Amino acid sequence: MTSILSFILTPFTFVIFVLFEQAVSLTGNYGISLVIVSFCITAGTAPLYLLADAWKNSETRLKNTMFDDIESIKNHYSGNKRFYLTKTAHRIYGYTPWQSLKTSLGLLIQIPFFFAAYEVLSHYTGYSGVSFFIVEDLAQPDGLLHGINLLPFVMTGINLVSAFYYSRSFSFKQNRSLVIMSLAFLLLLYNSPAALLIYWTMNNVFSFIKAIIFRKTGLQSIPVAILSSKKSDSVIKKMIHTY
To answer: In this structure, how many other beta carbons lie within 10 angstroms of the beta carbon of residue 236?
Structure first.
């Protein structure tokens, strides 16, 4: 299993390692190189995030269209009847499981780069003992606040601000998954080397800036929330009433 995961991550680790080595050779500074690599990864994956957002909004609009029908089926039927009526509703509205998979592209992009960055930057020995601004050693947890690691909290704070800006039209309940994911990153990366935290903190900063630019220029639309369409003449309701 480990060998399969390593094989899948190979191209991603190669990209991050080569970018980092090139940045170090150009700047001669490990900290600035981490910022450059973070910017390159954010900029390079931006078109994929735009595509993922477009797919997600398209799927959400379709879910809104059939929301009342699906809720009616859930409230009035169970077992096989619920299953087949739901399947029929999906077929009538043209909804397929493939659409849900496409909307996960944004998350699927993050996963390999997360593990690749962790693999490269956690085991890199070149910056051992090297300082960057107030960080004394890039290869060790920062311990900036009287032994408490401060960078993980900075990373999490920026991540939450960025997430809520992106989906500010959503309720807290709808944003709950974003909060949970941010806290999970905090726990996973708390004791990681400062270099990795600088990389991910700048990744969150650039992602936030990217979201603002895309939103202001109209390249990225406001995420669509799942709401009831309150239709009273839907195809499925007529079918249920008839049969």
So the answer is: 20
* DSSP category for residue 224: P
Distances (CA, A) of 178 to 147, 167, 203: 28, 10, 16
- Report helix, strand or coil for 53: helix
Q: Which tokens go with 19?
A: 């970018």
Which residue from 60, 199, 37, 56 is spatially nearest to 118, judged by alpha carbons?
Answer: 199
Report the candidate in 75, 92, 71, 74 with the shortest Cα–Cα distance to residue 83. 74
**Distance (Å, whole) CA 219 – CA 92:** 31
Is the pLDDT confidence value at 166 over 70? Answer: no
Amino acid present at 119: E
pTM for this structure?
0.74
Specify whether the CB–CB gap between 164 and 178 falls below 8 A.
yes
Nearest by Cα to 116 from 34, 14, 210: 14
3-state secondary structure at position 132 = strand
pLDDT digits (tens, 9 = 90+) for 132-149: 988 999 999 998 888 899
Query: Do 40 and 202 contact (CB within 8 A), yes or no?
Result: no
